[in-house]
Design a protein that fits this description.
By secondary structure, this protein is an alpha+beta fold. The protein has five helices and 13 strands. It starts with 21 loop residues before the first helix and ends in an 8-residue tail after the last helix.
């Protein structure tokens, strides 16, 4: 009796996720052509942002920079190239923008990774909306220096500002429409006019 030949392909073993150390991540990131975040042993490649996202982040950074300069504040406004180390979650992430109000506290002497942001800005998209408002916010709140979270909506003219209170609760203030002016309290009540922030943005979507 001849045994029947099996024409089905052999089963492959499921690929196992390789965990890397924080040191390995930093070494790889220095050589990488793309931005990658570190999530408790896993390197996660960041998706490229679209033009409206980048323009909103750039405009917020520019507005903060001008405000800091005009008022002669000794603050640092930085873009999405600055990484934030979140010790409690063993993560390294890229915000869309960050304001440092003290001397930068660099993680283990690295000049590209800080641990003491005061204000963090994230531009929300349909894909990142829920994550940035919940899980990422939870992680950021473990940073003692973190006092204000500015969320800029990409799909409509809306800015949400979460401000830390003296009793460690967070107050949410929503601003929406052309007439609204968002206030960043931890940047000496820096005004952020939505009309200027979203100027001609509907033409780019």
């Amino acid at each position: 009796m001849t045994a029947a030949l099996s024409l089905s392909p052999p089963k492959r073993k499921a690929a196992t996720q390789r965990f890397v150390s924080l040191e390995e991540y930093f070494r790889a990131e220095e050589k990488s052509l793309y931005k990658n975040e570190y999530h408790d042993g896993i390197i996660v490649k960041m998706a490229g942002a679209k033009l409206p996202h980048n323009r909103l982040a750039s405009r917020a950074i520019t507005y903060f920079e001008v405000f800091v300069y005009d008022n002669d504040f000794d603050y640092i406004v930085s873009n999405s190239d600055t990484k934030i180390r979140i010790e409690d979650y063993n993560k390294v992430v890229y915000p869309d923008a960050v304001v440092i109000c003290e001397k930068p506290d660099f993680f283990e002497g690295r000049e590209d990774t800080i641990t003491n942001p005061r204000v963090i800005v994230e531009v929300l998209s349909k894909k990142t909306n829920t994550h940035d408002r919940t899980l990422k916010f939870d992680m950021y709140r473990t940073l003692p220096s973190f006092k204000e979270y500015v969320l800029i909506y990409q799909e409509r003219k809306r800015v949400a500002v979460y401000t830390k209170q003296a009793n460690n609760t967070w107050l949410l203030t929503d601003y929406e429409g052309d007439d609204a002016i968002a206030i960043v309290h931890n940047l000496h009540d820096c005004p952020l006019p939505l009309k200027r922030l979203y100027h001609r943005m509907n033409e780019e979507n």
